[in-house]
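User: Last request for today: this protein with adenosine-5'-diphosphate, please.
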Amino acid sequence: MFCRSIRFRLTLWYAFTLAVVLAASGLFWDIYFSRELREHHDTRLYLVAEDIANLYFEDGRGARLPLDNADPERCNSLEEYVRLHNWGELVQILNRDGSVTCASMNLRKYRLPLSKQALLAATNGQPYFEMASSESKIPLRLLTYPVLEKGQIVSLIQVAISLSEVNRAVHHLRLVLLTFSPLVLLGLSFGGWFLAGRALSPILRIAREAGHIDAENLTRRLPEGESNDELGQMVRSFNLMLGRLEESFQKIKQFSGDASHELRTPLTILKGETEVALRWAKSPDEYRNVLESNIEEINRMERILEDLLLLAKSEAGELPLQNAALSLSDLLQELYLQANFLGESRRIKVLLHLDVDGEVRIIGDELRLRQMFLNLIVNGIKYTPEGGRVDIGLGLDDSNVVVSIKDNGIGIDKNHLPHIYDRFYRVDAARNREDGGTGLGLAIVRWVVDAHGGLINVVSKPGAGTIFTVKLPIGGNAAYRQRQEN
Ligand code: ADP
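Assistant: Here's the final one, the structure of the complex with adenosine-5'-diphosphate:
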């Protein structure tokens, strides 16, 4: 658990990155300094060798003469030169046959080694740098420089410098780095651990608070600080999400309460009437009346359940539209005929106005559109007193079809208008029961219009009537979606 914590992993990554950076920079400086020092030494050795070659091998006329044992004076002056200018360097001069002619005093009795590679390079007229060690095992940087006359080796100048001081310094530096780097790493890792803890502590607090929120106390919110940093934004988003959750929870609660209430009413009636009949009814006619009333309640429950199932499926996305091209003019004609039949019994006149040239075709789900328009038309008839009228209109506007259902019925008070699409919402519950309404009709209308990418609008005046206007995109919801994206 501890090893899986973000704090631990952050610190581990931090320490690892730091270790890599420290190791890489240590290595870089080690290589860089060693190379710089070597180049510095090589330049110095070369300059000394050239100096000696120019001073002691020139004969004044541009030729270079060998320095032999027979010329102790030149040897002594070379010794003097070394002493004066290059006390640190060890100089040795070899004859063509490889014997040592002169050597600086600081070499004492030791001799500088001559390797095969150096000899080979000298034969080719090339100076040669190498790592060597003296007879007393002192590490040396050694240059073998050939003195040439007409392409022939006259002499070999060997200049060396002891590396023991430099090596000791480098060694010391490495030791310091190796000792202190882990300590620095440890210290910084502790710092990282502390900082990660501080940065993560608000998250832990939020997690603790969030852990206390459940379905029972969805009204609770996480404390929002002043800051607008990432955590502040996260807390705000979290609270907004809680708000949405609370709202939908509330809706679900309300909905299940309403649904059970709606179903309980017909059940209670069924039970009551059946009990009364069992106790009092005598004749077959009395039983028939009770059964007829019962079937009415059963039909009602069936309607409620069907509508509820439809809405539940639509919300769960299990009711995709079966979109196809269809003739809206034909659909409205059919509905008009049905509405006429329904209206007749209540002496309500139904009229159809097709304000379009020719047939209007749209893309949509015919079954759902039929159900939606029928709900609106049936409502128009239901909420219009005898002798009234319902007008069904079809028109076009840009890329939409516009269908209006207008009645001159009881109308809806403006206080109720915002709620009429809510499930089970009824302006007058007692009256609706009589009319057989479930309170779900307009909720279904709203869903069908939305699913087709359309818009619904209602204008109503109590006592004067109501107009529902539905706008649907001709190309169906795909055209609507495309328009939204543009
Ligand atoms: P119901 O099945 O009860 O008719 P709806 O969802 O279809 O339920 O309608 C919700 C409420 O809106 C109705 O109870 C009714 O009060 C009101 N309503 C709907 N259409 C009309 C209309 N054309 N005229 C007056 N009131 C209406």
